[in-house]
Amino acid sequence: MDTPAPLRRLLACLDLTRLGDADTPADIAALCDLAARLPVAPAALCVHPEMITSARDGLLRRGLAGVAIATVVNFPDGAADPARCRREIQRARGAGAQEIDAVLPWRALLDDDPDAVVACLMAVREASGPLPVKVILESGELGSATRIREASLLAIHAGADFIKTSTGKARVHATPEAAEVMLQAIADTGGRCGFKAAGGIRTPEEAAQYVAIAARLLGPLWVTPTRFRIGASSLAEAVLAQLSPKPPEA
Ligand SMILES: O=C[C@H](O)COP(=O)(O)O
């Protein structure tokens, strides 16, 4: 079956994610196998820093060198510790990370300490050098649209390449309401920062909601992997299941 265009776009924008509590090289090999089974290669594999080498080797072995390796720092807690951010990013770059997903110190924001937030974000930006930086707002913890917009603007002004909703580890994951606020902040600042929806997105229908909001606020041509990502640990299987539905039992 040909892959319908909307599913092709979801896969092309996918950060295929494995951020378990005790991932092993075998888990990452399975993730690479899954990437290789997809009809369209994902934009990136998103793994813990200690799994970067396994991801790189696994992708190379399967002819998927074009898939970027993203990793997480300041994750999942989002401490207000610039030195820790620098240290983790240096290690990740040394291991071969190509994209950095860094958690914004959201508790400092809730404590009305934007300077502490900015100090961390600047450290992330500087330590990442030319690598794309995705700042994870942990929108489900921010409590209001006002705080989500404030976090979005701080991250955008600190040089984020993407703002990302969630770690997938909080009580509330990505929501269309948070995405609307974040994408509006991106639109209001010229559309140069990208957007990543992540956390709790399990079906193509859920993912399509985020595509629709981005296309409405920024235009359909904006929704490409350079500006738009979906981070998900189980979306790819759901896409494959839609492409090859199991025959009904006799
Ligand atoms: O960064 C991506 C998230 O951790 C993925 O969350 P998920 O496991 O709920 O898909």
Which terms summarize this structure?
DeoC, 10 helices, 8 strands, alpha/beta, 250 residues, TIM Barrel, eight-stranded parallel beta barrel, binds glyceraldehyde-3-phosphate, globular
Write the layout of secondary structure elements.
Elements: H1 5-12, E1 14-18, H2 25-37, E2 44-47, H3 52-61, E3 68-73, H4 82-95, E4 99-103, H5 106-110, H6 114-128, E5 133-136, H7 145-157, E6 162-164, H8 176-188, E7 194-198, H9 204-218, E8 228-232, H10 235-243
The chain binds glyceraldehyde-3-phosphate.
Protein name: Deoxyribose-phosphate aldolase
Catalytic activity: 2-deoxy-D-ribose 5-phosphate = D-glyceraldehyde 3-phosphate + acetaldehyde
EC number: 4.1.2.4
Summarize the structure.
By secondary structure, the protein is an alpha/beta fold.
Describe this structure in words.
By secondary structure, the chain is an alpha/beta fold. The protein has one domain (5-242): Aldolase class I (TIM Barrel). Helices cover 46% and strands 15% of the residues. The chain has ten helices and eight strands. The protein has helices at 5-12, 25-37, 52-61, 82-95, 106-110, 114-128, 145-157, 176-188, 204-218, 235-243, and strands at residues 14-18, 44-47, 68-73, 99-103, 133-136, 162-164, 194-198, 228-232. An eight-stranded parallel β-barrel has the order 1-2-3-4-5-6-7-8, surrounded by eight helices. Strand 2, helix 3 and strand 3 (68-73) form a beta-alpha-beta unit. Helix 2 packs parallel to helix 3, helix 4 packs parallel to helix 6 (114-128) and helix 8 (176-188) packs parallel to helix 9. The chain is globular and about 60 Å long. 47% of the residues are buried. The site of glyceraldehyde-3-phosphate (G3H) has 14 residues, from strand 8. Belongs to the DeoC/FbaB aldolase family. DeoC type 2 subfamily.
